[in-house]
Amino acid sequence: MSDDAERDRFSARAARYARVGANVGGVAARIAGSRLLGRGGGEGNAAALSAALGGLKGPLMKVAQLMATIPDVLPPEYAAELQKLQSDAPPMGRAFVRRRMMAELGRDWESRFASFDQTPAAAASLGQVHRAVAPDGQKVACKLQYPDMQAAVEADLNQLDILFSLHRRMDGAIDTREIASEIGARVREELDYRREARHAALYALMLADTPLVRVPRVREDLSTGRLLTLEWLEGSKILGFVDHPLEERNLLARAMFAAWWLPFSRYGVIHGDPHLGNYTVFLDDAGRPGGINLLDYGCIRIFPPSFVAGVVDLYRGLLEGDEARVVHAYEIWGFKGLKRELIDVLNIWARFIYGPLMDDRVRTIADGIEPGQYGRREAFRVHTALKQLGPVTVPREFVFMDRAAIGLGAVFLHLKAELNFHALFEDAIANFSAQAVAERQAEAMTATGLA
After folding, report:
1. What DSSP line would sit under 224-235, residue for residue?
2. pLDDT by residue (tens digit) across 247-271?
3. 240-254 burial, b if ≥16 CB within 10 A, otherwise e?
């Protein structure tokens, strides 16, 4: 990198620090002041923080949205406000797009495509997506990263601790430091589009025998570290199917279950971001829903096989009333100081997450709960109990596992699906062994270049 380029990058980072620090720091001071003066103002402060982050756009807004979907990381009024944030960063103009594409593929970049729509099909926090056609006629999606994202991410992540320190000062029931570390690691990974390409290849391998889920093929010849080109998969938003017949809604729910639980139980891999924009519905030859297209592979978590074994052990322990197995599962996950009171509190959450999986009958994932409220009541019960026990450190591996379970449950609620979740889960973990997971994971990682 030239001296001028390095200075430009430093300047971008410094400017970002200034804006983030001013916006978030100002809200932090307001919150601290209101508490010192004995005032409440939780909802007003939450709205102010939401406005500050929404004005910044970019990575910190993405982090805030992510935090809002992990139960009990933030107080309820803050989570409710941050969930309203939309990834609607203004798209790059055509001249900007041309410069970025030239930087990634060279001056003759346009000759690398049969056609390229310079108006984005979608714009988000870290980049935007363009429709294009490859020279061989294949329709593709080109995900182009915004400039200076590395500087923006580092600036924003260095301010992330401000948000978490607010929570620790207001309420010390949960020590959020490991959560902050995990979020930072995943957001940094999302900047590496070569890694995301390998993630997509990994999912294509893991779900090769699952016709309900389609994974786009990567166009390596049209991809770089900041440009990812994937096969364009035609599909419609899943919310357009919530009033379809139950049979069709159940098919989509089974596809979602397979997309998340089969890779985890067999390879130790989970998609950490199951929100509604990351998949679409494809139709079969008769024009009916045939399954889902899984579109985004930036936020992928690869777990040690021992962690997967802990998930299975906890399920079996709760199902069979085997307390020793339950405690062993928590120890595998990394929870410390497992006294009787803490185990009882953790079991409140575990029985909520595992409840539908232990109930051997056709049912909804949860009756009478709105998708956005899934898990909130149980998280509040856990939080209230933890206040009596002092700060509990949540192991970092737990963060995206928890988020995936909650996000997936919300999708099932949107679809009003009625399935035997117990039977689906038992099928996913049939003949489970940590050794088999380790072997499959190692082979898959080697085959896709992730090892």
Report:
1. -SSEEEEEPPP-
2. 999 999 999 999 999 999 999 999 9
3. ebeeeeeeebbbbbb
